[in-house]
Design goal:
Length: about 400
């Protein structure tokens, strides 16, 4: 068998299991109503929770940033790629977490994936470190744990008692508990207050990936730590800037000593070109919106849409996940059935993705509905009507 034929055989096996992934080409800006390969659709699949990706003020700020700083950074942050815009953004982002993390500083990254790899490989590279990882963590946290030299123990989803037992039995010098805040395929929130109490009791770090919370949760949109009212130097926070913030990138916020250590030891930070400064400049405007009256209004509207959707949708024999967030999973189970449901919605002009293994566990394929403040009440009513009359087989 040739090298190519081996790959072709594996691709056929994926297709036979209804696991082939396909890209779709979007012809318009990220928004609820868009053109997909020339076809108008109402989309419920982006993570643009506040509808800022195509906000006129953010677009103008991006244009202004390109005029001020050019198209690219030209080097890594530690060479010559760290612009005034990057510095201003990091200072603003540190301020968003200052109420939760004493002496907070922030470090910006090109993606959330890189940020999570940076945290876990830097802190997990210490001698005699153990990572305690939530079973439903995002792939970037899983890969960061694999790349770290630390030992890894996985605790069952949201099982605080199981984690407590693992921490109690551990003799590691460095203990690091790692969790998503809002689980990306289920929409549930982690029990952050209970996790932090355990970490403080056992002298452990608590790494919180708030990719789906920053901007959408908490007072002023400051995220899951603010919403839970947590305060501790044990907290290490990762937030993304391409979801509710509407642009691109990510950041880590933590005590100043943690940030200084990451700057010196985190390879995904040290050995990569900095993101374009224009993006950082645009994000300053995103933060103005998130923290201001408009951001508060958009979060309130989004909360109202979530409540309307959950009250009106009827999915039996499927299961509606227990989510209070903008992520609303309709768990179908079978891969092919999930694809059929997504295809039926597509024929009705609705774009809702089918999520299958390995993104979710085998037997839990689902439709992942994501709501945005850019959706209207009528948009959600159209989706609910389609779902409630969808053939289930």
């Amino acid at each position: 068998m040739t090298l190519i034929s081996r790959l072709d055989q594996r691709l056929r096996a994926l297709d036979d299991a209804s696991l082939t992934r396909r890209r779709r080409i979007v012809d318009t800006p990220c928004a609820p109503r868009l053109l997909l390969e020339g076809r108008p659709l109402l989309a419920f699949c982006s993570n643009d929770y506040l509808g800022l990706a195509a906000h006129p003020a953010v677009i103008d700020a991006l244009r202004e940033g390109a005029a001020l700083y050019g198209a690219g950074s030209g080097a890594s942050h530690l060479i010559s790629g760290h612009s005034r815009a990057h510095q201003q953004l990091e200072e603003r982002l540190a301020a968003t977490q200052a109420a939760s993390i004493p002496h907070a500083r922030a470090l910006s990254f090109a993606t959330g994936y890189m940020a999570n790899l940076a945290i876990l490989t830097a802190l997990g590279g210490e001698d005699d470190a153990t990572l305690f990882c939530e079973s439903l963590n995002h792939a970037s946290l899983i890969d960061g744990a694999r790349l770290a030299r630390a030992s890894v123990q996985v605790y069952p989803h949201a099982d605080v008692a199981a984690l407590a037992a693992l921490l109690e039995a551990s003799t590691a010098n460095t203990k690091i508990v790692v969790t998503d805040s809002v689980f990306s395929m289920d929409g549930e929130l982690a029990p952050l207050a209970a996790l932090l109490a355990l970490c403080e009791r056992h002298g452990a770090w608590l790494v919180v990936d708030d990719a789906h919370g920053f901007g959408a949760l908490g007072e002023h949109g400051h995220g899951a730590l603010a919403q839970a009212g947590l305060v501790s130097t044990n907290l290490i926070y990762m937030g993304t800037l391409g979801k509710a913030a509407g642009v691109a990138g990510a950041f880590v916020a933590a005590h100043a000593s943690v940030i200084a250590y990451l700057m010196q030891r985190a390879r995904p930070y040290i050995y990569t070109t900095a993101a374009p400064p224009a993006l950082a400049h645009a994000l300053l405007t995103s933060l103005d919106i998130i923290e201001g009256d408009e951001g508060a209004s958009r979060r309130a509207h989004l909360d109202g849409l979530i409540a309307r959707f959950r009250c009106a949708v009827q999915v039996a024999p499927w299961t509606l996940g227990a989510s209070a967030s903008a992520i609303q999973p309709l768990i179908i189970g079978d891969n092919a059935a999930a694809l059929r449901a997504a295809a039926a919605l597509y024929q009705r002009g609705l774009w809702v993705p089918a999520i299958r293994p390995p993104t979710v566990a085998a037997g839990t394929a689902r439709l992942r509905v994501t709501l945005s403040a850019a959706h209207t009440v009528d948009d959600v009513a159209q989706l609910v009507a389609a779902l409630n009359t969808l053939e289930r087989h």
